[in-house]
Design brief:
Strand order of the largest sheet of chain A: 4-3-5-2-6-7-8
Largest sheet of chain B: 3 strands, mixed
Helix content of chain A: 25-40%
Distance between the termini of chain A: 51 Å
Structural class of chain A: alpha/beta
Helix content of chain B: 25-40%
Number of helices of chain B: 3
Radius of gyration of chain B: 19 Å
Number of strands of chain B: 6
CATH topology of chain A: Rossmann fold
CATH class of one domain in chain B: Alpha Beta
Shape of chain B: elongated
Largest interface: A-B, 30 and 35 residues
Number of strands of chain A: 8
Number of domains of chain A: 1
Distance between the termini of chain B: 41 Å
Strand content of chain A: 15-25%
Strand content of chain B: 25-35%
Order of helices and strands of chain B: HEHEEEHEE
CATH superfamily of chain A: P-loop containing nucleotide triphosphate hydrolases
Number of helices of chain A: 9
CATH architecture of chain A: 3-Layer(aba) Sandwich
Oligomer: heterodimer
């Protein structure tokens, strides 16, 4: 027997799958956004509003949330396509499951796909799905200490949405402190405080999505 | 649930390695698991035993787990301390502005393996 030093993370095979998927999506001109949050942070409300506001784009949603049938119906009522992904009882989506979901969905006529990941702030952060953008949602009622409790999620995200901004007066949530904590973990993170209910802050988030759309080359 | 996902990818990563390195059999796999990686080692071993027979190359392999101590950095007093013993609050200055330095990783350190007989290697 010989000893082979690997020094590789256990999820190395997933990282390779994810990289391959990302390259394909870039070629096909599809922007995949991995949306992660705890349960009840307002993923579906945010998506509904975003889909309505960006009605000129062809948007699809890949639902991985465990309680997603209701969510999928809400999304389809707005005219976007939605499909339920199968996580096989797991607490996160990985690149293989995302690829299977996208194939079932079909992305030929699509500009933007939202992957609504399983609702939790731990596992989804550890698995690269192949998305070009990773966005996490933290709602005001959840508290401003979350960057301290779930640092990996903040470190891995390209953008942080602070949702339910309309609830700020009722909670002991220090917006500046939370942003400061998030930026200390990840200086490049984009922060969008917003309320999908009142529409406050939605424009900045939607402009950022538009900036990141991928030009179709074919 | 988390352990199952990780074991699934670990088995796949090892299958790929075996193919690349032309290994016929993996005898042992040494993993370094951080104290606060969120991995329950007992459950991890159970998941491993469940998946092992499904991967011919791993069938008779032994899983060796090494623990990496978790260390936290305090941003207020610029000192480090043991995460598991003291948690999030710095034991020196009681600040909550603390960050984990190491201890949440899960790395395949090394494997012991047998190579395929030379005749079994397909010619390029």
């Amino acid at each position: 027997m010989k000893v082979i030093e690997l020094k590789e993370t256990v999820t190395a095979s997933n990282d390779r799958d994810a990289e391959a998927l990302r390259e394909e999506l870039n070629l096909r001109g599809v922007l995949l956004v991995n949306l992660m949050s705890g349960p009840g942070a307002g993923k579906t409300t945010l998506l509904s509003r975003t889909i309505r506001d960006l009605s000129d784009l062809k948007i699809a949603v890949l639902e991985a949330d465990l309680d997603a049938t209701v969510d999928a119906e809400t999304i389809e009522a707005l005219g976007a396509r939605a499909i339920q992904a199968h996580t096989d009882g797991m607490c996160h989506m990985d690149a293989g499951m995302t690829r299977a979901g996208l194939e079932a969905l079909g992305t030929e006529q699509t500009d933007l796909v939202f992957l609504e990941n399983v609702g939790n702030l731990i596992c989804p952060a550890e698995f690269d799905t192949g998305a070009q953008l990773r966005v996490m949602i933290l709602s005001i009622p959840e508290g401003d200490d979350k960057p301290l409790k779930y640092p990996l999620m903040f470190r891995e995200s390209d953008a942080l949405i602070l949702s339910k901004l309309d609830a700020l007066p009722y909670f002991d949530f220090d917006l500046d402190k939370c942003i400061q904590r998030a930026k200390r973990l990840n200086p490049k993170i984009q922060v969008f405080p917003l309320s999908a209910k009142t529409g406050e802050g939605m424009a900045a988030w939607e402009a950022w999505l538009r900036e990141n759309l991928i030009r179709k080359t074919v | 649930m988390h352990e199952m996902g990780i074991v699934l990818h670990l088995a796949k990563t090892l299958d790929e390695t075996a193919k690349q390195e032309h290994l016929s059999k993996i005898g042992s796999v040494t993993l370094q698991v951080g104290e606060v990686s969120g991995i329950l080692t007992d459950y991890f071993v159970e998941c491993w035993d469940y998946f092992k027979p499904r991967h011919p190359v791993l069938k008779d392999s032994k899983l060796i787990l090494e623990t990496i101590e978790a260390v936290t950095w305090c941003d207020s007093c610029k000192r480090t301390y043991q995460t598991v013993r003291y948690g999030r609050e710095c034991p020196y200055c009681h600040s909550g502005e603390t960050w984990l330095l190491k201890g949440n990783e899960c790395i395949i350190k090394q494997i012991e393996a047998e190579e395929e007989a030379p005749s079994a290697i397909p010619e390029q």
